[in-house]
Specification:
Chain lengths: 168, 181
């Protein structure tokens, strides 16, 4: 055994093919990038002339325009629920006209359709939350969903990265 | 710190709100602009998001409780507005969050009249665009803005340890991207 060890003094480790051939190139490229990156202390973006000096004026115009729009068309006033219900009813009628053979109800409207409607009309969550008062929110029923292990595994494998876990 | 407290008091007092808000805008417009710009890339979209950010700040300043610094709170609003914008854009394009919207913006950077970066700056932006959204945020805030981990932690509501790990991974990925491209 000892004599065998004396004869074979290699460690048994190997390196990828051409590892040492390309080594200088890889290192010099890395050094070049590092050196240049150290000099890069800004992302290279620029802004139009007088952008910042005129920002306040444009912002106040936006606020003013929004306030005017809200005054002339109070989306979330007392009539909000009626308004949204009206649109939901209109959607139902529209779908009924297009597909007269189907049994229709609010439950049959695709979630995606409602989502698209909300997205296009640019409601944010706080505006939507204003529709309900706190007692109604407290009375909401929450459903407990049960997911198959396989579904959860698929989600973890397909949609998450190791960084997601590190950050969470 | 005392100045910030005084500013908050004025912002939350009806009579002083307008003047205090103007002060707030002039103090933070540039910092928030560059923060949003690095997420959104395009100037025009950044302008929209920055305005929406200040409008949201104005609408919600009365309910600001002071649990975090005013600066962190505003950065958080700006970050959320920028990410919501990307999400909405991606939704409209029926693609996943951030990926296509940013790829598109970055691939147009070379011809963007509001980009004057060198080749290495362009390559760096392309490398950053390959990162997952959270790593991108951490990298930009740490690398370009030199924001302390503690402050990034307040803004992103993520532990400092996780942020350090995230930054380290981002740097490695960017180095690899630069070597291979």
């Amino acid at each position: 055994m000892k004599s065998k060890l004396k004869q074979d003094k290699t460690s048994g480790y190997i390196v990828p093919q051409d590892y040492f051939v390309n080594f200088e190139e890889v290192v010099s490229k890395k050094m070049f990038n590092r050196q240049h990156l150290e000099e890069v202390n800004n992302p290279g973006f620029k802004v139009p002339k007088k952008y910042f000096s005129t920002f306040e004026e444009r912002l106040y115009n936006s606020i003013h325009n929004q306030e005017t729009a809200v005054k002339s068309f109070p989306i979330f006033s007392i009539n909000t629920v009626l308004y949204l219900s009206g649109i939901a009813a209109a959607l139902l009628i529209l779908v009924a006209v297009l597909m007269p053979t189907n049994n229709l109800s609010l439950d049959n409207i695709e979630t995606e359709l409602l989502e698209t409607f909300i997205t296009i009309n640019d409601f944010d969550t706080s505006e939507l939350a204003m529709i309900w008062d706190s007692s109604e929110i407290n009375n909401l029923e929450f459903y407990n969903y049960e997911f198959l292990d396989e579904t959860i595994n698929d989600y973890i494998i397909d949609d998450l990265t190791i960084e997601d876990f590190l950050i969470e | 710190m005392i100045e910030e407290k005084q500013l908050i008091v004025r912002l939350q007092t009806e009579d002083f709100r307008e003047a205090a808000f103007k002060e707030l805008i002039s103090l933070y417009k540039k910092r928030l602009y560059w923060h949003i710009r690095k997420i959104i890339i395009s100037h025009e979209d950044t302008d929209d998001v920055l305005q929406d950010t200040f409008i949201k700040i104005y609408k919600n300043i009365a309910s600001f409780k002071g649990n975090s610094k005013l600066y962190s709170w505003m950065y958080r609003i700006a970050t959320n507005e920028a990410l919501s914008f990307l999400k909405k854009n991606s939704k409209h394009q029926q693609h996943r969050l951030g990926v296509v919207a940013n790829d598109f913006a970055v691939s147009n950077l070379a011809s963007d009249i509001y980009f004057e970066g060198s080749d290495i700056q362009l390559k760096l932006q392309q490398a950053i665009a390959t990162l997952p959204q959270k790593q991108r945020l951490v990298f930009n805030m740490r690398y370009f803005d030199n924001i302390k981990y503690k402050d990034i932690s307040d803004i992103l509501e993520t532990s400092e340890g996780a942020l350090k790990a995230s930054y380290h991974i981002a740097v490695k990925k960017i180095e690899q991207h630069l070597i291979h491209n």
